[in-house]
Write a structure and sequence with these properties.
The complex is a heterotetramer, with 2 copies of chain A, 1 copy of chain B and 1 copy of chain C. Chain A is α/β, with parallel strands linked by helices. Helices cover 41% and strands 22% of the residues of chain A. The longest helix of chain A is centred in the middle third of the chain and has 17 residues. By secondary structure, chain C is mostly helical. The relative contact order of chain C is 0.16. Classes of the chains: A alpha/beta, B mainly alpha, C mainly alpha. The structure holds adenosine-5'-triphosphate (2 copies) and magnesium ion (2 copies).
């Protein structure tokens, strides 16, 4: 089942900036898709179109099986939820609880149901203990999680995130990505994220769209995408560090490496095959001694 | 919501953007005075035609022109109607509508049309000015006219941070919309006041940070301004000839032709 | 008795005439018309007159600015930023039920409570100049008149209302609500006065004023009430989140 | 020569948050030092103290050889310059040129000198073509560079940057770091930067301070810092990806690796030593064929 179907979309801002020129973008239900692109490549614009904040001049956008224009606000926002890059822009209420309840209350749900959804959403982002805290006393990472909970409480089937790890420290980044993975694998949410950080992606995304100057340069699973070193550089991105290492060893040093390992785990397997067992065992024995 | 400020055209290079802003401002003022004091509709309409012509030559998108002129145009319509039916004596025509009698009067119509011409002419002057002069050049020009430094300093800060806050506010409003904050009237009002409050808070926080940054670069309570170059020969020439042109046109169109 | 009745009916009929013909037209540009007097509407003498009225208030506001920025180094950035915020708030579309479309709040009442009336006049004069020069909204010839109605009258009525009601010991929410409401209505009344004075032509000034006032009642009355809610709501929001910022801004303001 | 000397500094915010508790921080002239720490560890607070935006309750801060309190504002800001994380905070004029000239003009320099400094500063950050542009038309990366130029125009001998690469795409990040390296090596500027991204640091920083909960956990050259895996994890950071790979191979697979390579270059050298030459040469010949 298609969750999102974008075909031949162009978008020009009022001042004449052509932000998207002919984008095709398709996401099936349950996928985890990344939109990868440099600053100004059009990620936020594309997201704006997906959630109906912007209107495309030409081209077609379908959410589920329906044309986006034919959906009412209620229908649309119970299908797609957007988490903004800056949590500050998304948290208005005084307390965490109130903020998360904002969406469900606007759906005119009975108070018991609102209550249930708030608990559920906070539990999903591991933020239950924050429930009664004041928003402006939360740390940045906590704010990010709470703003995610606010969107989760609308129970969208597609979750869109604009640079979910921007500004987070490594621990927070890992936690956020694990969280998204969990939501995707366990709750079956379709996850779409826009980012320009490449290192974590291969571990998480099923598929990657590389955006550059409002065009999709390439689309495919991470292994395929990162094979094309020149395309990546052209899009002002880079290979993940580990891949870079392997790439250089393969290209410049002539080490026989199959494909291009993207994660630490893959790289380890390949390298261990190349390193003679004697060396390794000797070392291990030395250690034991 | 806020796509009003599309100043991108002012940064294009063309004959009009190259003129010194002081000259442009003075010419615009003279044109405005001429339009506002005109007793006949010819001069304002001539100014309108001139400005629209210039706008067309500069290839300003019709959408922007329409957007900027829409409000004044509808005002003109309202004014013509009010004046026609309310002021004057000589009846032109009358009709009844829903039990009320409406009488259009000649003097009123004339008055209204003149007023409409004033508005259109004057607005087009300002519009043309606004698409060939970037804000910072206008600020420079205002300095030359001895506008209070404090006023200018606030104006510069306001102008700059309108853009910054605008991005934030647009995001805030979008976030509310995505969680259905504007789907019913009562809710819309609540969301709206929240939005306004959040804007104020952002502005206060930004003020603190901006001031910190200013202080670290030596700010001691007054923004320093660079020197103003003297008005160049070419610009002086343009200024004088335009002023003479406006005066001559005024003389001809207002008093010259008999009647 | 009968005479008075016919006279009154005349006025009412005229008003209805205008309301009926203009009302439909006004529904669209109400936001632009009700608040900003467009470029070119005022005859030169009136334009000059309103400039003369506005200038002393702006000068007084600038003096206030100088004085207060001596004590508080970040005062000018603060005024600039609050000005930017109020400018944006006044650009936000607010749904007015009777007009069928969106209108815009003025925000002067809120600004006056935050930074005081004198500075509100300064900020309003800047906002109006920016709008006139860069948006062709309002105007240069009508700048004086617009400063008087939007800045001076709006700010002082808003601020005065707030102070008086606080003085009476009533809650600040009510004070803020009435400040927003009255400053909005006062602005609109003053705009009508300015328009009527310039446009009444041969007719009597008061008849014209009544007409203009009545013509805008359908949009301005609800808009004023909304502005009251806006003022109170926004202030409540700021007070509950960042009271300390409010205190700093308000040194001299009222909040 | 010491450029900055911080000894035993404590700092508590008005609301009672103890942001720094006993920090020692020393930087010599010409060094390139990184303050590494997770969100909320106190980096921005420390920076605020260094430039005099915040006042320490206890402890001593010296800039050059003088107590910070004894320096006049002019003296201080010509010695240390701070580039804020968010360029919007720092760009308050309407155009690039006016903004960069703001500092020099505040110093009451003659206009010719102001002019010279503006040109120089813009050239230093490779932003000369932006000179007459309006600030609000710049892209994010350009804004970052221009805000750096504004500080450079004050000719500080110590340049402090709060998360200079936050929000930049890989190409922008690399460009910014290269730029800082150039300023440090060629112009002799002392550079101090706060960040929580670890991958680029080893290439650039002479020394790293790891901050956690307002304390310095450890201090030293990158090789030393990243040896302490547990300390790094405790500070909610992580090893650079390449080091992580090498660390895992060393620890779990028993591959004999000396020390811990931090950069791709170092890792390559070590790995090549381990991989038998026959394999590599065979592969290269295959390629030629
Ligand atoms: N409101 C706007 N008005 C005009 N142009 C805009 C606007 N927003 C974005 N743009 C332009 O559209 C293009 C795409 O911008 P967009 O924000 O979609 O990029 P992005 O990929 O999200 O970048 P980033 O990684 O910096 O967030 C850019 O050239 C940008 O300058
Ligand atoms: N103005 C403030 N008032 C009260 N507490 C504050 C303030 N600013 C920061 N803090 C607190 O002080 C601590 C240190 O904050 P600081 O901003 O220095 O961290 P940081 O290392 O810069 O984090 P980040 O990486 O998120 O920028 C945090 O616990 C933070 O919540
Ligand atoms: Mg973006
Ligand atoms: Mg920080």
């Amino acid at each position: 089942m298609k969750a999102i179907d974008v075909t031949g979309v162009h978008f020009t801002y009022d001042d004449g900036t052509e932000a998207l020129s002919g984008v095709d973008f398709h996401v099936s239900e349950g996928e985890f898709v990344a939109i990868l692109g440099s600053n100004g490549s059009g990620k936020t614009t594309l997201i704006g179109l997906l959630v109906g904040l912007l209107k495309a001049k030409t081209g077609q956008i379908r959410i589920g099986e329906r044309e986006i224009g034919s959906l009412s606000a209620e229908e649309l926002y119970q299908r797609v939820g957007l988490v903004f890059q800056n949590p500050n822009d998304q948290l208005f209420a005084a307390t965490v609880e109130e903020d998360v309840a904002f969406g469900p209350r606007n759906l005119n749900l009975p108070e018991a149901e609102v209550e249930r959804r708030v608990t559920e959403a906070l539990a999903a982002v591991a933020a239950l203990p924050l429930r009664c805290r004041a928003i402006h006393h939360l740390s940045f990472g906590e704010q990010k999680r709470v703003s995610l909970a606010g969107v989760m409480a609308m129970r969208p089937s597609v979750l869109i995130l604009d640079e979910p790890t921007a500004g987070l420290d490594p621990a927070g980044e890992a936690q956020m990505m694990q969280l998204l993975k969990k939501l995707n694998r366990e709750e079956g949410l379709t996850v779409i994220l826009a980012t320009h950080s490449v290192d974590m992606l291969p571990l998480f995304a099923n598929r990657i769209y590389v955006l550059d100057h409002g065009r999709v340069l390439q689309e495919g699973p991470s292994e395929e995408i990162f094979c094309h070193q020149e395309m990546i550089v052209r899009a002002k991105l880079r290979l993940p560090y580990v891949s870079r290492l392997m790439y250089e060893m393969k290209r410049h040093d002539g080490v026989p490496i199959d494909g291009l390992p993207l994660t630490i785990g893959e790289a380890r397997v390949q390298l261990l095959e190349l390193i003679p067992k004697e060396l390794i065992i000797a070392e291990l024995e030395e250690k034991k001694a | 919501m806020f796509d009003l400020f599309s100043d991108i055209f002012t940064y294009r290079d063309n004959a009009l953007t190259r003129i010194d802003p002081r000259a442009k401002l003075l010419i615009a003022l003279a044109a405005l005075i001429a339009v506002v004091t005109a007793e006949r509709i010819v001069l304002p309409l001539a100014v309108l035609a001139f400005c629209l012509g210039a706008v067309a030559i500069l290839r300003i998108p019709a959408k922007l022109v329409a957007c900027r002129l829409a409000a004044p145009l509808s005002i003109v319509a309202v004014l013509v109607v009010i004046q026609t039916f309310v002021t004057g004596k000589t009846p032109l025509f009358a009709f009844t509508f829903a039990g009320w009698q409406f009488t259009a009067k000649a003097e009123g119509l004339r008055q209204g049309t003149l007023l409409g011409a004033h508005v259109l002419g004057a607005v087009s002057v300002v519009f043309l000015l606004s698409i060939v002069t970037p804000a910072h050049r206008i600020f420079q020009a205002l300095r030359w006219f001895r506008i209070s430094r404090n006023w200018l300093e606030i104006a510069i800060l306001m102008y700059r941070y309108i853009f910054v806050l605008m991005d934030r506010v647009a995001d805030l409003a979008a976030a509310q919309r995505l969680r259905l904050g504007y789907t019913a009237r009562g809710r819309a009002l609540r969301s709206f006041t929240t939005l306004a409050g959040a804007t104020i808070i952002h502005s206060l926080e930004q003020a603190q940070r901006t001031h910190d940054a200013m202080r670290l670069r030596g700010y001691r309570g007054t923004m320093p301004f660079g020197p103003l170059p003297p008005l160049g020969r070419r610009d002086r020439l343009i200024l004088v000839s335009c002023l003479i042109g406006i005066a001559v046109a005024y003389g001809l169109l207002e008093w010259g032709v008999s009647g | 008795m009968n005479g008075i009745w016919t006279k009154r009916r005349n006025v009412i009929r005229r008003a209805a005439t205008v309301a009926a013909t203009a009302g439909t037209l006004i529904a669209l540009p109400a936001q632009a018309f009700a608040m900003h007097i467009s470029e070119g509407i005022l005859p030169a003498p009136w334009a000059l007159f309103w400039y003369a009225v506005a200038l002393p208030f702006v000068a007084w506001g600038l003096r206030d600015l100088r004085r207060r920025s001596e004590d508080l180094l970040w005062f000018k950035p603060l005024v600039g930023l609050v000005g930017a915020a109020v400018f944006l708030i006044s650009c936000m579309p607010i749904p007015v039920p009777t007009a069928g479309t969106c209108s815009h709040p003025a925000g002067t009442g809120l600004a006056a409570i935050l930074i005081g009336p004198g500075l509100t006049v300064v900020v309003a004069s800047i906002a109006l100049t920016l709008q006139a020069l860069f948006l062709a909204h309002g105007g240069l010839t009508t700048l004086g008149a617009n400063i008087v109605s939007m800045g001076v009258v709006g700010a002082y009525v808003g601020y005065g209302t707030y102070r008086i009601i606080r003085r009476l010991g009533l809650p600040w929410v009510m004070a803020a609500f009435l400040a927003g409401l009255l400053s909005d209505w006062a602005t609109y009344a003053m705009t009508s006065v300015e328009l009527a004075a310039a446009l009444h032509g041969g007719e009597s000034f008061s008849a014209m004023l009544t007409l203009i006032l009545l013509a805008f009642v359908p949009t301005q009355v609800p808009l004023g009430i909304l502005e009251g809610f806006l003022c109170a709501g926004a202030l409540k929001f700021v007070r509950s989140r960042k009271p300390e910022l409010l205190r700093m801004a308000a040194a001299g303001g009222a909040a």
